TrEMBL record:
<dbReference type="InterPro" id="IPR055235">
    <property type="entry name" value="ASD1_cat"/>
</dbReference>
<dbReference type="GO" id="GO:0046373">
    <property type="term" value="P:L-arabinose metabolic process"/>
</dbReference>
<dbReference type="GO" id="GO:0046556">
    <property type="term" value="F:alpha-L-arabinofuranosidase activity"/>
</dbReference>
<dbReference type="Pfam" id="PF06964">
    <property type="entry name" value="Alpha-L-AF_C"/>
</dbReference>
<feature type="domain" description="Alpha-L-arabinofuranosidase C-terminal">
    <location>
        <begin position="465"/>
        <end position="645"/>
    </location>
</feature>
<dbReference type="InterPro" id="IPR017853">
    <property type="entry name" value="GH"/>
</dbReference>
<dbReference type="InterPro" id="IPR008979">
    <property type="entry name" value="Galactose-bd-like_sf"/>
</dbReference>
<protein>
    <recommendedName>
        <fullName>non-reducing end alpha-L-arabinofuranosidase</fullName>
        <ecNumber>3.2.1.55</ecNumber>
    </recommendedName>
</protein>
<dbReference type="InterPro" id="IPR010720">
    <property type="entry name" value="Alpha-L-AF_C"/>
</dbReference>
<dbReference type="InterPro" id="IPR013780">
    <property type="entry name" value="Glyco_hydro_b"/>
</dbReference>
<keyword id="KW-0732">Signal</keyword>
<keyword id="KW-0378">Hydrolase</keyword>
<feature type="signal peptide">
    <location>
        <begin position="1"/>
        <end position="22"/>
    </location>
</feature>
<keyword id="KW-0325">Glycoprotein</keyword>
<comment type="similarity">
    <text>Belongs to the glycosyl hydrolase 51 family.</text>
</comment>
<dbReference type="InterPro" id="IPR051563">
    <property type="entry name" value="Glycosyl_Hydrolase_51"/>
</dbReference>
<dbReference type="Pfam" id="PF22848">
    <property type="entry name" value="ASD1_dom"/>
</dbReference>
Length: 654
């Protein structure tokens, strides 16, 4: 080529590039995908759920119980969230009676001493619920309580749901037959043509003088799949949309507790609620233990997930630990019993207990995690503790995949659990963290000290058991969603190595005092819930995931363009995830040489004008994915990715 011609060509290219930059766009990138060249298998369990009792995730959240402090715990100020009711000239006193209760697990009760009352001037107690009690029109609320009286002439007990603002009962029921022995009584409250509101409370009262003892007062709305002692419909529906493959349970610090005596003792969480003593969670409030081991398993069943069971391994957060050897043996046996409760047949000891609790069929169990974040244990005992659990579990259940939570040398774990809590910029820099053969990256900063030096594709596999881009409060903003999406493209590209991953924490009660940790995926109050932009990124990625990665190459992509491409072999579809974390639009030329594609493609896009744009309880759908159809599609396609956007293309192969 003559020198002058070449110079003119360079000038034309320079003008073209400057025009793109001036118009707010990056120079075009090129992405070449080879759908006919699968490169690795995508883990079928890649995306799952991780929750724990934090941010009132269970009590006051997913667990649909409407009564707060149903077992009458108190402090110096009185009985928490319960208050005396004295209508008109009625007179009464309330106190905790430590001498009587309906069970050994609940040996105390609320004593209501009614000095004066009549049918129109009743006395009793009220409960304010979890920042109110959400009521809807023409809805039945099912309740119960354990009660006894000083004599049989206490008369009928009135149970009412009362509106905070009008003082009027919107639903009432009468409970008769209160005797002098402890007994459970049930009732149903049906609302009429009311305005939906959370400004309501529960009242239990009597119209005669006498003494009444109460314990385990409970009230439930209609639950997901109508399960008794079940879950909030709206939160379960949001999780179902994430297409989770597994549930890590009971999750995180909730497993180990601050102290050994405050760990999740699964045997105290099964059977009737009256036999569950409750326990303190590590996030400084009491857990009702209404969500026990079987409820976790029912959660898995409802959302078609497999349980990933975490067993207590002898370490608690206050640096208490159990020495390996004889001291640890009871805890090892407890884990074996727990595994049998989950997966054993009804002819086994603990499988029979599960059957007695209402679920004869065993649950499929493939993964067991030994402990949680044991890299915090300064005693250095985890290697020996893990090995003791590993040998005992493998001896009885050789097919179970066992997960280590800290580096161990004595045995080779099947899977290791890594946790990452970072900012968006760090995820942009480290989206290729697992792309390299040894998994090393100098740019990733872990939130904690649990670092594994190598990611060997010959094993152990990797479970990213907790991760999140921590930007936004109480829930993530669009900037966090972009960081999450960039990170997930790397998880997908390397899902032959990363077999499971779970965002954490997932749930947060957005009422004042409801949050202990920001940033959290799904927000809610008593009345409603919403998904954050990061939640919708999770939904998009999990909804379009193939079974194989394919050969691909990105050129001129810049530092804030990320992608993954997977193939659904049965449906003959390519799922292409594209993330533009830049403030500029990004032109992209997509090429799929050697294949024929359908003339149209599905596109799902989440985008925002700014990284700080977000959803909230007041504005829950400011940012939601938008679906559209691309026409005139062929094996070469030019698309433009808007600024701050996450995009999925579903392309059908022919």
């Amino acid at each position: 080529m003559p020198e002058k011609t070449f110079a003119r060509l360079l000038a034309i290219v320079a003008i073209a590039v400057s025009t793109v930059v001036a118009s707010g766009q990056n120079a075009p990138a090129t992405l070449t995908i080879h759908p006919d060249q699968p490169t690795s298998t995508v883990s079928p369990t890649l995306y799952g759920l991780m929750t724990e009792e934090i941010n009132y995730s269970y009590d006051g959240g997913l667990y649909a119980e409407m009564v707060r402090n149903r077992t009458f715990r108190g402090d110096w100020s009185g009985i928490l969230y319960w208050y005396l009711v004295e209508d008109g000239n009625a007179r009464a006193k309330i106190e905790v009676d430590e001498s009587t209760g309906p069970s050994s697990a609940l040996p105390k009760s609320l004593k209501v001493n009614i000095e004066q009352a009549d049918a129109k001037n009743q006395a009793g107690v009220l409960n304010v619920g979890w920042w109110g009690m959400a009521l809807h029109r023409n809805t039945i609320y099912k309740g119960s309580f354990y009660a006894k009286a000083g004599s049989t002439d206490i008369g009928p007990i009135t149970v009412s749901l009362v509106n905070d603002n009008t003082g009027k009962a919107v639903a009432s029921a009468t409970v008769d037959g209160i005797g002098t022995d402890w007994k459970q009584h049930t009732f149903a409250l049906k609302t009429g043509e009311i305005e939906a509101s959370a400004s309501n409370h529960l009242v239990i009262s009597a119209g005669r003088a006498g003494t009444l003892w109460l314990q385990l007062v409970s009230l439930f709305p209609p639950t997901y799949h109508d399960r008794t002692n079940g879950f909030r419909k709206d939160l379960m529906e949001k999780m179902a949309a994430m297409h989770p493959a597994f549930l890590r349970m009971p999750g995180g610090n909730y497993l180990e507790g601050d102290h050994i005596k405050e760990r999740f003792e699964w045997k105290k969480t099964i059977g009737p609620l009256v036999d569950r003593p409750t326990h303190r969670s590590p996030w400084n409030y009491q857990s009702s233990d209404g969500m026990g081991l079987l409820e976790f398993l029912g959660w898995c069943e409802d959302l078609h997930m497999q349980p990933l069971l975490a067993v207590y391994a002898g370490y608690s957060l206050s640096q208490e630990h159990v020495n390996p050897g004889a001291d640890l043996e009871p805890y090892v046996q407890d884990a074996l019993d727990e595994i049998e409760y989950v997966s054993g047949g009804p002819d086994t000891k603990w499988g029979a207990e599960r059957a007695k609790d209402g679920h004869p069929a065993p649950f499929k169990l493939s993964y067991v995690e030994i402990g949680n974040e044991d890299w915090f244990d300064r005693s250095g005992s985890y290697d020996e503790r893990y090995t003791q659990f590993y040998k005992a579990i493998k001896a009885k259940y050789p097919d179970l995949q066992l997960i280590a939570t800290a580096p161990v040398k004595s045995v080779k774990p099947d899977v290791i659990d890594e946790h990452y809590y970072v900012r968006a910029t760090q995820n942009f820099h480290d989206a290729a963290h697992y792309d390299t053969p040894d998994g090393n990256s100098s740019s990733m900063q872990k939130w904690d000290s649990g670092h594994f030096d190598r990611a060997d594709r010959n094993g152990p596999k990797i479970f990213v058991g907790e991760w999140a881009t921590r930007e936004g409060s109480p829930t993530p903003n669009m900037g966090a969603a972009l960081g999450d999406a960039a990170w997930m493209t790397g998880l997908e590209r390397n899902s032959d190595l990363v077999v499971m991953a779970a965002y954490a924490p997932m749930l947060v009660n957005v009422n004042p005092g409801g949050m202990q940790w920001e940033t959290d995926l799904i927000g809610y109050n008593a009345m409603k819930s919403y998904g954050s932009p990061a939640y919708y990124a999770q939904v998009m990625f999990a909804s379009y995931l193939g079974d194989h990665t394919v050969a691909s190459r990105l050129e001129n992509g810049g530092e804030k363009l990320f992608y993954s491409a997977t193939l659904n072999t049965a449906k003959k579809q390519i799922y292409l995830k594209l993330v533009n974390a830049s403030s500029d639009a990004q032109p992209l030329e997509l090429a799929m040489p050697g294949v024929h594609v359908a003339a149209s493609a599905r596109m799902v896009r989440l985008s925002a004008p700014d990284t700080q744009t977000t959803n909230s309880i007041e504005d829950p759908t400011r940012l939601v994915p938008v679906e559209s159809t691309l026409h005139n599609v062929n094996s070469k396609l030019m698309v433009t990715l808007p600024p701050y956007s996450i995009q999925v293309l579903q392309i059908d192969l022919q």
